[in-house]
Amino acid sequence: MLTMQQPETHTEKPEAPLILALDVGTSSTRTLLFDAKGASISNVHAQQQYKLHVSGEGEVSVDADELFKVVVQTIDDALEQAGPLAEQIGAVAIDTFWHALLGVDERGKPLTPLITWEDTRPQQAALALRKEMDEAAVHARTGARFHASYWPAKLRWLAQSQPDTFAQVRQWLSFGEYLQRKLLGKSVCSLSMASATGMLNTRKRQWDEDLMQVLHVQPEQFPQLGDMHDGINGLQDEYARKWPMLRDVPWYPALGDGAAACVGSGCASVENWSMTIGTSSAMRVVVRPEQVVPPIGLWLYLIDANRAVLGGALSEGGNLLTWLDAILKLPELKDAEPLVAGLPPDEHGLTILPFITGERSLGWHAEARMTITGLSAHTTPAELLRAGMEALAYQLDGVYRQLLAALQVEQGKQPRIIASGGALLSSKTLQQIIADTLSVPIYPSRDLEASARGAALLALEALGVINDVGQVAPNLAAPTMPQSEFQATYKKAEERQSKLYKLLLPE
Question: pTM of the predicted model, to two decimals?
Fold first, then answer.
């Protein structure tokens, strides 16, 4: 398992109002407390692990009610840890994983499990939609391609594989809306969550009419849209009795965890770019929504009505390294690090396409699978783990180059790359490999719970406590500087990976 660093804490007297932040990730959920300056509160860090349901057919899902119970438990634990400070909570902020889909009936009861972004069963549906519709035009409107991770492919797949269930669904939701309805009796779907479904026309700020027609769904089957400031007050009786201090404070709509991570790591302006490697990986930059049409390899999601994130996401990250570590029977990653760090770059001669759960950016081949070439009787487990790290770096470099081109960054000008995510921050070797591959310094964020902090900062902005989260300075550790002597080696290895990719995964 990956070793997660503990978040920095705030030891001085916290400034009210405090923000309770719920961070629902793909393997665990956390509840933390932040003060009016966005600093975390000492000893308030509740976390609960949960298991996804995984099958050989590509399913990766979770029971929505089971996940809801996990979230409730972390709120219980955090409020107990907070003690008297809980009375100073002025709002609840939420971030959840993007792209997940849940179908509910007229009573709000789940008819499907919560189907996550990792589920690859809808991959054939995505390919069929590419043939039926002008994908480039859909991408320009929605910021998303046809892919198994997004709602259009999931809805087509459900209609074909489970037609009776599909016909019974009254509404399609993300987990954030389901959580609000269970606790508050109603919900608001933020523009942030809606834009990452692949169903939202990001220019018009409404559900896409052409997609709804092709997928045979109606506008009333989608949740009410709102923006970050559209908080809901008034807990249901059961939870009002359970958490009286949260009864009348605003519960803000859930944001996508990636958007929140940008804000929380100090990347809410175009000068600072966010790079995250947790379970998966992503590189993102905050832009004005009208500033750019995303190139076909990248996506564009909204933070709110005035801010968007342009970027690319890999389906692999810490999950790849953990899998390699387990398969190769190495010590835990933190203990295997010295073995990998001592190996020269690319001396192993291996070429890896690291798609253990299919590909997203840049080629969007959901059917892609991991490929390793160059193995010999002399290949060691440590070499394989190092090659996996390098393969991740090459994929991120592809996203970086497309971002530079899309934003027309002048030659010689470099954005500041701010790193977050447990897999990246816990590995100096991985940071060095990426710095050398991208030929830029990598600045580790000291705000280790970037998603939760970002949601809290945006809640403070909605309350009027913070004027603009874009003006919040990042809290950075010393950078990992690129080593020029290795850049040519990594460039040749990246070109080798690109040739293998084009051979096995032609457009």
Answer: 0.90
